[in-house]
Amino acid sequence: MDQSFESPSDRRDFLRKSAALALAFPMLGSEFQPGLTFESPESMETEKSIIGLYGPWAVSRQKGLPGLSFRNREWTDLKKWKAAAKQEAERCIAAPGRDYIPAVKVEKKYEYDGLSVEEISWQLPYGRPTKAVVLKPANATGKLPGIVGLHDHGGNKYFGLRKITKVSDDQHPMMKEHQEHYYEGAAWANELARKGYLVLVHDTFTFGSRRVLYGDMSPIPWGEIKTEGKSDANPELRENIEEYNQWAGYHEHIMAKSLFCAGTTWPGVFLSEDQVALNILAARSDVDAKNLGCAGLSGGGLRTVFLAGMDERIKCCVCVGFMSTWKDFALNKSYTHTWMTYVPVLPNSLDFPEILGLRVPLPTMVLNDNQDSLYTLPEMKAADKILKDVFVKAGAADKYDCRFYEGPHKFDLEMQKDAFGWFEKWLKK
Predict the structure, then answer these.
(1) Which pLDDT does position 12 carry in this prediction?
(2) DSSP string across 70-128
């Protein structure tokens, strides 16, 4: 219908009335209801959030428990619930294909500090080859329980597996600093291997050997992600690494949008690559494929949630420094996390801790820090209750353990001791 206006004020009046009508008729074909009223913004809850007045509305969209939460009364059959919930999680996560074992190339074999070390690599259908390190006691014989060690993010995408391993006295100074800061000086993958495990640590998507190189980029004339004048030469210099990490942080916005356009998600690509690594680990002749685990801090904790939640070959897991609720992310902390965290639409079906809860009744440990600035303590506690309720309802209360420690975001020696004890309890029978 053609609509003309005598003046700008007429047009503004029309738009104002149209907006009011739109509120009164939220769905096409709705019947007009006399006396229908709406709260004005001034009368709505005004609790502050990182998205302003929209915060209370955003979280109020989830009325009651998420649709596929095992905590809902109608779910009484654990097997049926897991089948339905995993199917929806798989649909939303949209991980690329990963049901294969690529050819593995052994680059080097040697011993270091009491450990047998293998440097290996494999080629996925996309990107540059994945580098990985395999660690086990130098005198080990027979089949050992296997662990996938999942490295963190740490705002440092130049490095990957080197963040939690040490295979030479000639360690990069930035990695020595990294381990001092987050791990109380320990290369925790090495320390776990010493206790009688075979530990595989690989670079994952956009980190280390899997990172995006300047030379592979088409020009993007925007903001802080310009590649003009940047070089991949002499990459081990601190100033080059710091510049790359800053650039890579900005580039995450583009990568995430492109992944959505490609029909997948960042957690989906992580899951795919981590499951390929798990395939490789399980196929080794020196690994007991019936006793596999995984663990990681921060970004490694995020990857633990998805890998352990979605793959029941992980018989025991430890998620460190990455557990809260979707509500916490929506209202308080999404800005403290990268695009690597989020799966569109999935919160309608499962709260964040319930992704990890998909593995119930398999042994599951969560370690948190009380002063972790990446989350709010009340929502970390709420996530603990959610997981506890899931395991209790499944009759597996003894298979879940959650602990809180004083201090900031970290996986220190005390926490490592508790994590290693959990693996000792459930993987070494």
Answers:
(1) 42
(2) TTSTT---HHHHHHHHHHHHHHHH-PPP--S-PPEEEEEEEEETTEEEEEEEE--SSSS
How far apart CA 298 and CA 320 sit, in angstroms, is: 6
**120 against 38, higher pLDDT:** 120
Task: Round to whole Å and give the CA distance between 353 and 115.
Answer: 35
pLDDT band at 18 (very low <50, low <70, confident <90, very high): very low
Looking at residue 217, the DSSP 8-state letter turns out to be: P
What are the chain's domains? 104-427 (3.40.50.1820)
Give residue 1's pLDDT.
Answer: 40
DSSP label of 242:
H
How do residues 177-190 score in pLDDT, each as one tens digit?
A: 999 999 999 999 99
Residue carrying the six token digits 């303590």: 377
Query: First and final CA of the chain: distance in angstroms?
Result: 76
Question: Among 55-59, 111-115, 224-228, 304-308, whose mean pLDDT is lowest?
Answer: 224-228
Element (H, E) at 288: strand 287-297
Amino acid at residue number 69: S
- Yes or no: say if 93 and 306 are a contact pair by the CB < 8 Å rule: yes
213 by DSSP, 3-state: which? coil
For the chain, the maximum distance between any two Cα atoms, rounded to a whole number of angstroms, is: 90
Q: In what order do the strands lie in the sheet with 115-122?
A: 104-112, 115-122, 130-137, 198-202, 144-150, 287-297, 314-320, 364-369, 400-405
Q: How far apart are CA 94 and CA 137, in angstroms?
A: 37
How many other C-beta atoms can be found within 10 angstroms of the C-beta atom of residue 320? 28
Distance CA 101, CA 143 (A): 20
